[in-house]
Amino acid sequence: MGIIVNEKSKTITLHTKHTSYQMKIGNLDYLIHLYYGLTMYDADLSYQIKQYDRGFSGNPYESRDARTFSLDAQPQEFSTQQQGDFRVTSIEMVNSDGSYSFNGKATDYKITKGKYNLETLPTVFATDQDSVETLEVTLEDTVSSVQVILLYSVFEEADIITRAVKVKNVGKENIQLKKIMSTCIDFLNGSDMDLISLPGRYGQERQVERQPMTHHIHTIGSVRGTSSHQQNPFIILCDRNATEDYGKCYGFSLMYSGNFLAEAELDQYDQLRLVMGIHPKQFSFEIKPEEVFEGPEVVMAFTTKGLTGLTHLYHDFYRSNLCKSKFVKDVRRPVLINSWEAAFMDFDDVKLVNIAKAAKKMGVELLVMDDGWFGKRDDDNSGLGDWYVNEEKIKCGLHKLVEQINDLGMKFGIWFEPEMVSEDSNLYRAHPEWTMEIPGRPAVRSRNQLVLDMSRREVQDYLIEKVNAILDDANIYYVKWDINRSLADIWSNAQPAEKQGEVYHRYILGLYRVMDGIIKTHPDILFEGCSGGGGRYDAAMLSYYPQYWVSDNNHPIDRLKLHYGTSFVYPVSTMGAHISDTGKFVSLQTKAVVAMCGTFGYELDATHLSEEEQELCREQSDLFRKYYHIIFKGDYYRLSNPFMVGNMTAWQHVAKDKSESLLSVVVTNLTCNGPQEYIKAKGLDPAALYTINDGKEVYSGSALMNAGIPIEREVPEYTAFQFHIQMVKE
Ligand code: DGJ
After folding, report:
1. What is the DSSP code string of 208-260?
2. Which of 371, 531, 578 for a ligand 1 pocket mutation test, highest count of atoms within 8 Å of Cβ?
3. Structure confidence by residue, pLDDT tens digits, 653-664
4. Torsion, Cα of 98, 101, 102, 105 (10° steps)
5. pLDDT reading at 42 higher than 80
6. E strands, 328-378, where?
7. pTM attached to this predicted model
8. What residue's CA is closest to ligand 1, atom 6?
């Protein structure tokens, strides 16, 4: 069905397989939002909109005889500025005459086949351009000659609608953009809605919080220059009674890696406005005549199938339409071992080869040399920026080291932190002006490092050249791209004083250019993102990296929460998860079961493991490879909530054809003489018969889902169970 325009009623309706989204060029040509939800067959839903004389809300001048028309009470697709709508705004700009005003009226629209593209920012893509339709609506303020172009792409089969925005100066004078939100949705009644967000901190990223909408502005955002550990650019608005399995849920995932803001305002009339886009903090972007500013994309989904239904929509879509790396679909990710927790920066080539030899016995396929291999980097006070091999540590040279690892039948990976610089580095000594430091003020240090001015072309070119030189010098299979601090001292020596408000955003544009220049030119390398754990885990980053390090916290019991929270939007295949020494009372087996809810690998000194432990690890690595297709390609179910009091945490992966499933349980709390507990499976074929772990007994899918699987009681704390559920072939 795609996009349907009704010229008579002036409605435009976007249809996906199960949802509809409607807008209308309404009174005085304002673009009115009418509906987003389950498929709607009515042609014109504007009958829902009532008008009253709302005191203190103001009426547009042209409607002065009609005191009942106020933008303060009208649902809109993009809100105006200073036109009597006092809710959170989509735009704030200063015209050349100094006025703060934007009165956008719909002047044009067009529908095209295929997905829209943004020139400066990453977006999702269509796998088949014929299956996607795009709507472009132009809103114009004729006084200031500014156009706002609203972009919508409809992914019918995936039940996904994306939105983005462009601001075009069609006048003759410069304007200053102070705020631009990529999406604005006005729900006619939001008093029964909840907001779910993923707040956190270092080591505890993406914990889950749910709060009821009340009459104020709920803001979720980051002003750290990155999308951050503390908040995530993803939110859910759902019915108050929505659960994992039932209820209306809306998802909004922003494709942006810098400062972001989502504002959800329940207004005086119980209408709920959600806007989401770049955070306006210290943002002021000059747009010259004929120039266009692009705002990042928001990926929206709706379902009545509860939080799990929403998760499935995002997982499926992000597994096929977000990242073009061959490692998303076609090439299995290798089991890796990372040197960080094994050696930190205290290693040389011999130590790495020894770790690799031991890891080989554990079924590991890739050795990753983490921080410490370059410049003068014996601790975290120096070396960043000097991207050449430290031959005092890697005495044989990188090329030879990689060869030795390859000769073991293993692949080799390497770590970078391109955006940062140490004061004690040759780069800083040569180019102190490349660093973000406000003239006359000492810069804020964090992990004793400073931030490179990624908005500068020379910095971008330097990084592209230096990182590519390393990648092209040896047989590198994998790269971990880290960033270990938040941004402060926002300043670019390359910009005049009046343009410093552009630097936060220009940093991100520069970063994406560098990533294009390194990642897209190395399609055979597997890239993993990292930010002191999972501090910049967002959809834009995942369009470059097929996987992202979830957290520096490898404690398997904490990981249950970390994986749970991350899973609401980001596929399991993106979650970097390793077994480490952290959690000394937790068995290797439990650690492995937890790490299998992700990319699976090790982060420990393999040479310290006994032969039995190495053998156990080998069995676990083999199991991961055996279950890979279910974990990476199947549907993911959260069977219990680790944030609630309970005795176990369980989750499940189910193959798309329901023929196979992997159900994992970790006992987190032992109760003395407690009740028998059961875990109820999900997603199986109720009528089909299944075996568990190749046993002889046969169970129906409906029994496993409704009666459940009894979990053994008399077990040590933190015991884990893995049930491989397989359909019996006729
Ligand atoms: C932070 C990362 O999260 C760690 O895994 C490790 O790579 C260190 N940085 C290295 O400095």
Report:
1. -EEEE--SSEEEEEE-SSSS-SS--SEEEEEETT--SSSB-EEEEEE--SSSE
2. 371
3. 999 999 999 999
4. -120
5. no
6. 336-338, 366-369
7. 0.98
8. 340
